[in-house]
Design brief:
Layout: H1 9-43, H2 50-82, E1 90-92, E2 102-104, E3 107-109, E4 115-118, E5 124-127, E6 136-138, E7 144-146, H3 154-170
Parallel strand pairs: 3-7
Antiparallel strand pairs: 1-2, 4-5, 6-7
Helix pairs in contact: 1-2, 2-3
């Protein structure tokens, strides 16, 4: 299983669209970072204005949701442009806490935070993410989370998805 170089008109168009989505995601992240900084600045004033802080805080969910949509669209375009769908997109896990559970390959945008998964006995287990920042992770339950750090270029995003797909295939 490997990354295919985009050659068909559809694949090349998908790469162009992907570049636009990555640019949009980066702009949204910059806006989110700016709002968070503005909230911090206003909160640190001697007399912070609660209405200003509330106004900034109301904007954050809308921008976060837009970024979520754009990043997931970019992931789908990367899969299409670089032919990243694995030979077996649905599998039964053979290792880990969720052994013998059926999973479907679906890489999605998100943040990497501790989560709970059901093990083979149906018991909830807390899974901690890696200590160092990561661009993506394939969780023990087979789900794949791609972080904002992977959205630097179409080729890099494709490489990250491929890398996580290998982990998915190993499970």
């Amino acid at each position: 299983f490997a990354v295919n170089k985009p050659t068909t008109p559809d694949e090349l168009l998908a790469v162009q669209q992907l570049q636009g989505e990555i640019g949009q995601a980066q702009l949204l992240q910059a806006g989110i970072d700016r709002l968070r900084a503005d909230i911090q600045i206003e909160s640190s004033r001697i007399s912070p204005n609660p209405a200003v802080i509330a106004g900034y805080e109301q904007q954050l969910p809308r921008l976060e949701n837009q970024k979520l949509v754009v990043c997931n669209r970019a992931i789908k375009l990367a899969v299409k442009a670089y032919g990243l769908t694995p030979p077996r997109p649905t599998a039964t896990l053979v290792t880990g806490v969720a052994k013998d559970r059926a999973v479907t390959w679906v890489p999605v945008y998100g943040t990497i935070e501790p989560r709970y998964v059901l093990d083979a006995n149906g018991e909830s287990r807390r899974i901690l993410p890696p200590a160092s920042p990561a661009t993506a992770i394939t969780w023990p339950d087979g789900s794949i989370t791609i972080t904002m750090a992977a959205f630097t270029s179409p080729a890099y995003l494709a490489a990250v998805i491929l890398h996580e797909t290998v982990h998915f295939e190993q499970r």
